[in-house]
Every structure is written in structure tokens, then in C-alpha cells.
Amino acid sequence: MAWVTITNNPTWQYNNAPANPGTDNKFKKALWDLQTNGIRSTGQNHEVYVEVRKVGDTNRTRGEMSKTYWDNH
Predict the structure, then answer these.
(1) 35-36 and 3-6 as β-strands: parallel, antiparallel, unpaired?
(2) What global pTM score does this model have?
(3) What is the rounded CA–CA span in Å between residue 45 and residue 57?
(4) Phi/psi zone of residue 38: left (φ > 0), alpha (ψ -120 to 50 degrees), beta?
(5) Which of 34, 58, 65, 70 shows the smallest number of beta carbons within 10 Å?
(6) What is the pLDDT of residue 61?
(7) pLDDT of residue 1
(8) Cβ distance 6 to 69 under 8 Å?
(9) Which among 73, 62, 71, 61 has a CA at the least distance from the CA of 1?
(10) What are the sequence ranges of the domains in the chain?
């Protein structure tokens, strides 16, 4: 697992190897299956970082963030 700084947003990082949630939660597993290297493609040319945190934050995750938005700003 590695936390990588988000392009065009140096105060946030994303996890490029999020943990597999297993089969206990089918919804989370279905979403996890749609991601590669911590980035989920939602179709229609939109991508999402699936696990983000602020640089220096010790909390594992603060949710998701649009990769498409930050790639274009």
C-alpha cells in the first residue's frame, strides 16, 4: 500500500492499493471490483480516487474524490 499525492492537489493523497473488502459486503466488493490501483472508472469518462486522506493525516481514509476534476484543474 502506498499513499500517492494527487496531481494538481498537493494537500491530498490517494491509496493506490486499497484493501479488498472481501465477500461479506457485496456492495463494497462490487465497487472494489470496478477499481484499478485505487482509481474507479464510473463510465462516461469519469474517474474517482476510492480512498483519500490529507497529507500527514493518520486516519486511513476520508472518503472518495473525483480524479477527473483534479486532472483538469
Answers:
(1) unpaired
(2) 0.86
(3) 30
(4) left
(5) 58
(6) 80
(7) 66
(8) no
(9) 61
(10) 3-71
Q: Measure the CA–CA gap between 15 and 18, rounded to whole angstroms.
A: 6
Q: How far is CA 37 from the centre of its chain?
A: 8
What pLDDT is stored for residue 22 in this prediction? Answer: 86
Phi, then psi, of 30 in degrees rounded to 5: -65, -40
Residue with cell 490529507: 54
Contact yes or no for 35/14 (Cβ under 8 A): no
10-residue stretch averages of pLDDT, the chain, 73 residues long:
92 94 87 93 90 90 93 91
Q: Write the CA distances from 68 to 15, 30, 41, integer angstroms.
A: 16, 21, 10
Burial class (CB in 10 A: 0-12, 13-18, 19+), 16: middle
Residue type, 21: P
